[in-house]
Amino acid sequence: MIKQSILALCDHPFRQHQSCNNSWCKFLDNPNEKFSSLPHGKPLSDGALQNALRSVFTTYAGNAGKLSSLGSTQQNESFNRIVASKAPKQQHYSSSGSLKFRIAACVAQKNEGNKFILDVNKNISVSPGYFTQRLAVLRDLQHRKRKAIANTYKFKQRRRNLKSTRHQKLATKEVREGVTYSSGIGLEDHPSDDIEEIPSPSLQPAYKMIEWTTKVNQIFFDIEATGLARNSHITQISATSDKGSINTYVLPKKPITPKAQEITGIKVEGSKMFCNDKEVKSKTKLLLPTLTPLTEKKIIISRTANVIAASGMSFSHLLLSYARDGRQGIEDVLKEEDVNGKVRVTKSKKIVDAISDFFKSLKPEA
Q: Where is the PML C-terminal domain (predicted)?
């Protein structure tokens, strides 16, 4: 059975289920089922890849008898944690005379629980002690409680969700930062020139209702601009009161005059703002016009374009995401969450598919 299942792993992803088993293959009951772990739910089709997989798994299938006796490694991992608590690696116990006793205590705790201390004390004619006994009972009770919780469906589901979230964050960072986020990048002989980084989600201000009171709160505010002309653009807005303070930079569409730059210390280089030679985050609407190709062809609506621009992404960022990881790259950056857990743009598969199909239809030179 194990040998047959191992060999079936070579054919299962290619929608060849003649060697599969009903206990784990859902396609035998429903041939129209989609693959949940493959892109777009479609099977693999590369014959060379299938042959390479078959050569690997054939070796494992030849050792099916040895693999059949293997069990879970959770017990070993649990014991290793106990050893780490009594003989931590950062302490040099390997040449200590107490190491054997520490390991013996770990074995006793694993087999008998924390009450082994009481049995040891009794065997050497030492009173177990009220507090020692109370603590041992408490620790064993906590262990049984944690074990019972770990076996519940809710706990396992949460663990799967956390694992999925970690993988999603990793995939999103790989798309945003490109090859610079890949492991072993420093060992490559010919590093890629794809070093542009897609900006992380911009935090959007949270609007709260203000309750009217008879008490007057004094608010002091100030603004900085590109110059003294009536048509100057605002570059900085600051306000403070006894309730708190805010400070926001706005990327202007007009150049800052040398005098204003000298007084405020604010300057613009490309799409970045600097205050006293330190880069600052700024609000901008300059990214919205870059999304015109998507709105003109009704790939996305204006509201979606506003959300994309407000999150700090432009058309080139979306195109770069698609170039790095196709449809999955678009999906990863659009549904990335900020520090508050808010989705960057949307989780809508319809929007993701529309943008992906648009980029797919573009010519290579685009």
A: 288-361
